[in-house]
Design brief:
2 strands, 8 helices, 245 residues
């Protein structure tokens, strides 16, 4: 019964307007790759990319306006962003639109972020919340990618767009790498605090003179017997412990 209830809850979350937009955005990734690498229809690929950027903004607004924020949406939105970024970088590398070293740097950032999520899950933390730096980096890159497509060719429009494309790409890439560094810092702090709390709890448990091991006494004998505070549990379940203070 619990499995059926969770499936029904997941289906209800998926059928909300913001999550439908996120699912449609995810479905556009293979179409975008095919247009860019197959027939090389850059115009249609550009349209898909622009629509993706628009729905990325709209789904968040709808979730707040309609009060339809959900755990599924928290997973789908960044997943769609990262999938589009990775797919676009790979396609641009194949088409020789961006240099290989830039693609490698941004893909390494994605791998590092994925490792941080796995480490946090191992310690039973929730994944870190999306930061303003990370969201801003994604926003800038989603503008940079269409501009990089528009600058292909020798037309006057391509010459006008080229400096804008380079500027958005540099700023977006720098912010994206910085947001990856913030994820690493968040993960290190969360693991450090968890281990420190575990060690302190173990030290109190092994200390025979610890107040927690020596219950207070009164006229009628022991009273208020309580063990040490559950610091380990607090560090394992507090989702905000994985964020930078």
């Amino acid at each position: 019964m619990s499995g059926t209830g969770s499936e029904a809850s997941l289906l209800r979350q998926a059928l909300t307007a913001p999550n439908i937009l996120s699912i449609l955005r995810l479905a556009g990734v293979p179409l975008f790759l095919w247009l860019l690498l197959g027939p090389q229809e850059d115009g249609w690929a550009l349209l898909v990319l622009v629509l993706s950027a628009g729905t990325d903004w709209l789904d968040g607004k709808l979730a707040r306006w309609l009060n339809q924020m959900s755990r599924l949406g928290e997973v789908l939105d960044p997943a769609a962003d990262r999938l589009y970024i990775v797919a676009t970088l790979v396609a641009f590398l194949v088409r020789d639109i961006v240099p290989w070293w830039a693609v490698v740097a941004l893909l390494v950032r994605e791998v590092v972020a994925a490792v941080c999520v796995l480490v946090l899950r191992y310690y039973r933390f929730r994944p870190p919340e999306v930061t303003y730096v990370g969201k801003g980096a994604t926003f800038v890159l989603m503008y940079a990618f269409p501009l990089l497509l528009l600058m292909q060719g020798d037309s006057m429009a391509a010459e006008i767009v080229r400096p804008l494309a380079y500027a958005f790409t540099i700023w977006g890439g720098a912010l994206y790498l910085w947001s990856g560094a913030l994820y690493v810092i968040q993960t290190v702090l969360a693991v450090f605090r968890f281990r420190r709390g575990t060690l302190e709890t173990a030290a109190r448990s092994n200390n025979p003179h610890s107040p927690s091991r020596t219950p207070p006494t009164g006229p009628s004998g022991p009273r208020g017997l309580r063990g040490p505070p559950g610091r380990r549990v607090r560090f394992r379940t507090d989702a905000r412990a994985a964020t930078v203070p």
